[in-house]
Amino acid sequence: MADLTINKVETRILDVPLFRPHGFATTTATAQPILLVTVTLENGVVGFGEGVVPGGPWWGGESVETMQAIIERYLAPVMVGRPVNELSGILVDFEKVVANDRFAKAAVDIAMHDAWARALDIPLADLLGGAFRKELDVTWALGVLPLDEAVGEVEEKIAETGHKSFKLKMGSGDPATDTQRISELVEKLGDRVSFRIDVNARWDRLTALRFLPKLAEAGVELFEQPTPAHDLDTLREITTRIGVPVMADESVCSPADALEVVKRQAADVIALKTTKLGGLKESAKVAAIAETAGLACHGATSLEGPFGTAASLHFAAATPAISYGTELFGPMLLKESYTTEDLVYENGVVKLPEGPGSGLEPDWDKIESFTRK
Fold first, then answer.
1. Same domain for 82 and 131?
2. Which of 173, 203, 207, 294 registers the highest number of CB atoms within 10 A of its CB?
3. Vertex 57, ends 56 and 63: CA angle to 5°?
4. What amino acid positions are annotated as catalytic residues?
């Protein structure tokens, strides 16, 4: 099938402004760097993927700059000249030339899936077993904000898009002050919506055991990765001791990690990011491990743009293991999009886009304006 042969792989770095600064445990982002990857087939079909990390290399060691170098110098030569429907073999061969670098691999994995689906004129979800749902719940994540600003943003999202679940970032400030801030926010609004926290693996054992019970008492419904990724013993202790579900994020960057979390009984939920896991194929392995063990999966985000978010949405729509909702809200943080149509967010859900591939088409004028010169 020569028309499915990969003709070229191209990358460009976009710097897309956010509508407001977004605070993580160790950094604050005012714009989102996105590596836009295009895979062009011999028949002229183009697929799109995105290399995105949440706020920069502090999270997993990769950045848009390192991803661009890895893809152009090492991964693209493995791809060019091979049919895109040999995707599994291409991914196997990636491992012979590049260890780890899962965010970079995810970008080209998704671009190849997108190109293949567009060439077949089918939705991306059809390559993954078919969508059994057309919309998914979306949790809105707040950055590290003062109490009054957080209350205002929650009220705004309830009114504008009907969000019912909110994630609160912690870990950058004094734990006692942070805990008081979150507790007051939950007290003000917890009878209308649900709240969860994400510490981004920044608390040690004693800090977690001191403050998480207070957050549980305040009504927080989920603890996301309160302690370091490697410390599964403490994560298990929190999971079994405090009585609030625990979600592993930084602790699960591969199927082997997921299996270890299952064996150690270290979490109740796995944050499944197609980016950190290396793409859709590896994400399917993690989903299968979690589902078999009775753990829930959450469709998590690295704050991808529209193409990356749409790919994760197609994956979630076709994967029953993702049973704990999603936070696929990345495009909502962008001041402007770079697709001709936006993903639809309303009533606390995001709709699965229709059409071949991801269902989205590029706005090349906007892409050019965001391209780093």
1. no
2. 203
3. 80
4. 169, 327
